[in-house]
Amino acid sequence: MPGRAGAAALGLGLVAAITLLSAPSASSHGYTDTPISRQKLCANKTVSDCGQIQWEPQSVEGLKGFPAAGPADGRICAGGNTQFAELDNPRGGAWPATKVTSGQSYSFRWQFTANHSTTDFRYYVTKNGWDPTKPLTRASLESQPFLTVAYNGARPAMTTVHQGTMPSGKSGRHLILAVWTVNDTANAFYACSDVQF
């Protein structure tokens, strides 16, 4: 009977749709709020004219493997995403900056809307003499992270704090790039935080 076959097909379609909607998402999302990242400043409306990132600060996702791979120079703060290009705009060096002290202990905090199996977190800082009026490039950063926290595939807590030490020998305005490398996808998440030593 065509009526029963159609109803059965519709029923199976609904079951499939419900299964897909209720399946756990493979996506993972997060941002730093200590020191506060550019995307969180936009979400808080501390900074205006931010475009789409103000509604999804957790979505700065790009290819992993930084610094050998990952987002292109000049597009690092947006994770290579053109829809978040406002994060790469240096705004004349006028992004609000968090005051920090060189060589002192610091609590770096991430907020996650979806955590995920993690390889590690790495924190980079700009070199002395960095020009805050120009977009971030690899050449602007110290070649090695000043803090690396290995996770070996574990999932971070929804609010995660890493205790570390701010790099020594820094003064004036700098930028900290935090990179969260997801373990079982090809991607990482990027967060740029402007700081004043």
Topology:
Elements lengths: L1 H21 L6 E6 L3 H6 L17 E3 L34 E2 L5 E10 L3 E8 L21 E4 L8 E7 L7 E10 L4 E10 L1
Parallel strand pairs: 3-9
Antiparallel strand pairs: 1-4, 2-9, 4-7, 5-6, 5-8, 8-9
Tags for this model:
197 residues; alpha+beta; Coagulation Factor XIII, Chain A, domain 1; 3-stranded antiparallel sheet; globular
Could you provide a short overview of the structure?
This protein has 197 residues and is an alpha+beta fold. The chain has two helices and nine strands; from the N terminus they run H-E-H-E-E-E-E-E-E-E-E.
Report on the architecture of this protein.
- It is a single chain.
- With 197 residues, the protein is of the alpha+beta class.
- It has helices at 2-22, 38-43, and strands spanning 29-34, 61-63, 98-99, 105-114, 118-125, 147-150, 159-165, 173-182, 187-196.
- The chain has a single domain, classed as chitin-binding protein cbp21 (Coagulation Factor XIII, Chain A, domain 1, Distorted Sandwich), CATH 2.70.50.50.
- Strands 2, 3, 5, 6, 8 and 9 form a six-stranded mixed β-sheet that branches. A three-stranded antiparallel β-sheet has the order 1-4-7, with no helix packed on it.
- Strand 8 (173-182) and strand 9 form a beta hairpin.
- The longest helix has 21 residues, at 2-22.
